[in-house]
Amino acid sequence: RRRNPGEPEFHQAVREVLDSLAPALHAHPEFAEPGLIERITEPERQVMFRVPWQDDSGTTLVHRGFRVEFSSTLGPYKGGLRFHPSVNLGIVKFLGFEQVFKNSLTGLGLGGAKGGSDFDPRGRSDREVMRFCQSFMTELHRHVGEHTDIPAGDIGVGTREIGFLFGQYRRITNRWESGVLTGKGREWGGSALRAQATGYGNVLFAAELLHTRGEDLDGRRVAVSGSGNVALYSIAKARDLGAHVVTASDSEGCVVDEKGVDVELLRQIKEIERGRISAYAQRRGSCAVYVPGGRVWDVPCDVALPSATQNELDADAAATLVRNGVTVVSEGANMPTTPDAVRVLHSAGVAFGPGKAANAGGVVTSAFEMQQNSRRESWSSLRVAERLALAMRTIHDTCRQTAERYGAPGNYVLGANIAGFTRLAAAMLAQGVV
Ligand code: NDP
Questions:
Q1: What value does the mean pLDDT take over residues 231-235?
Q2: How far is the C-alpha of 421 from the C-alpha of 429, rounded, in Å?
Q3: Which residue out of 91, 224, 230 has the highest number of ligand 1 atoms within 8 Å of its CB and is therefore the one to mutate?
Q4: Which of 82, 223, 357, 369 could form a disulfide with 301 if both were Cys (CB 3.0 to 4.6 A apart)?
């Protein structure tokens, strides 16, 4: 903490991993080599830069850009960009740290990174977002590349922003280097199902958790938080598998829709019109209620899928979920559940899927996009869907088996952390002190 003051989310993410590692260090004393943990918790490189741009009125604004290249032990740096006013160095470091373990867990040849800016795209015109993205990439292009560092989307960065970023990269470098960014539009190097992948993947993970109890999603009541990319496609996939999704939210409130969330209406409002969740309730009719400032965790459900942001599900919310009979909580967002809340869920016997595993479908499909780019191929939705389903099953089984092997059956947090750590640590030892 003395070394990294004012970065509580980073401390939280590191502590959660370190708390899991004792059985792995006991079984592999070589991983306890002095300096190894210190190297894992120190980013290889951190870049902070000025992002000046002009809004539609001609006013010059200055934001701060970040790219934290955490680890390239297992492959080129890989991880999303977040545009949100809350972004600071500590947030980007926590996300980058998580990404290293997530990418290791997937078995892919990818290192970990994260980046972004305190810019808020909400309420900005397309031209303003374009000018901001162009300024952001004018600096970022020095640090990224298909063999170096490959950003993707995250909060506030979707296909629109990736398009503007890619256009500026192409213009500056005079190269068609499609592998430099993932999450591109389908017509210019993007993969089928990349937009859907994180939400779809999390629902597949939740289904695996249910299968271990001899249950499935059919007929289950599901609570989803958020209404962005991950939430939207979690709702869509859960509905396809027969579940009844009754909630969605944004930072201002939540909706409860007892008839089941209408995905097409939500997509129209959020993705096309870029509107608020309150508009959903107004247009949906009497089955949907908007609760200003409300939290979805108060709504009784069997399965909860936190899909908005970090620390959105605290111990009090977890206790409410348990009281209402939740059996599975699976994280679509990164670190949405506080450590106290995880303890409440574990001690109540709730199956808990940590984000590192449960939301890895996004980066897995980014890797598919990179494979298609390097082969100049375009895979069908069916092919991507089959590979994504296989990947999520494999990640689930890896977490489950690792937790059992290290004496904590059913603890997917420990399973995900140890599986990610052991692969990373072995590669670090093999590569020497770098
Ligand atoms: P979006 O920007 O598409 O959506 C974010 C959603 O979360 C919005 O509904 C937003 O509401 C809400 N939200 C954001 N910040 C807050 C906050 N401080 N308090 C309450 N609600 C908030 O982002 P994504 O769906 O892409 O990302 C959601 C989560 O999933 C993040 O944790 C991200 O790191 C994680 N993730 C995303 C992946 C991806 O492929 N996109 C991959 C893996 C993880 P509002 O509009 O009011 O801000």
A1: 98
A2: 12
A3: 230
A4: 223
- Decide the pairing of beta strands 351-353 and 328-330: parallel
pLDDT in tens, 2-41: 889 999 999 999 999 999 999 999 999 999 999 999 999 9
Give the strand pairing for 288-292 and 253-257: antiparallel
Q: What's the chain's Rg over C-alpha atoms?
A: 21
The answer to whether the CB of 222 falls within 8 A of the CB of 302 is yes
Give yes or no for a contact between 336 and 355, defined as CB atoms under 8 angstroms apart: yes
First-to-last C-alpha distance (Å) of the chain: 23
Taking CA 419 as the corner, what is the angle to CA 331 and CA 397, rounded to the nearest 5 degrees?
Answer: 65
Residues 6+ apart with CB under 8 A from 211: none
Above 80 in pLDDT, residue 200?
Answer: yes
Query: Nearest residue CA, atom 36 of ligand 1?
Result: 333
Give the closest residue (by CA) to ligand 1 atom 2: 155
Would you say the CB of residue 106 lies under 6 angstroms from ligand 1?
Answer: no
Asked if residue 24 lies in contact with residue 421, where contact means CB atoms within 8 angstroms, the answer is yes
Assess contact for 174 and 96: CB atoms under 8 A.
Answer: no
Token reading at 264: 């097409």
Backbone dihedral region for residue 61 (phi beyond 0: left; psi -120 to 50: alpha; all else: beta): beta
pTM: 0.98
Is residue 382 a contact partner of residue 369, using CB atoms and an 8 Å limit?
Answer: no
Q: For 181-268, where are the E strands, in sequence order?
A: 221-224, 244-245, 247-250, 253-257
d(CA 362, CA 230): 9
Token pair for residue 426? 């072995």
What ipTM does this complex have?
0.98
From residue 14, alpha-carbon distances to 1, 32, 86 in Å are 11, 16, 20
Q: What is the average pLDDT across 303-320?
A: 98
Q: Please, how many CA atoms are within 13 Å of residue 101, restricted to the half-sphere of its CB?
A: 33
Of these residues, 114, 237, 270, 356, which one is catalytic?
Answer: 114
Domains in the chain, CATH or no CATH each: 8-177 (3.40.50.10860), 195-353 (3.40.50.720)
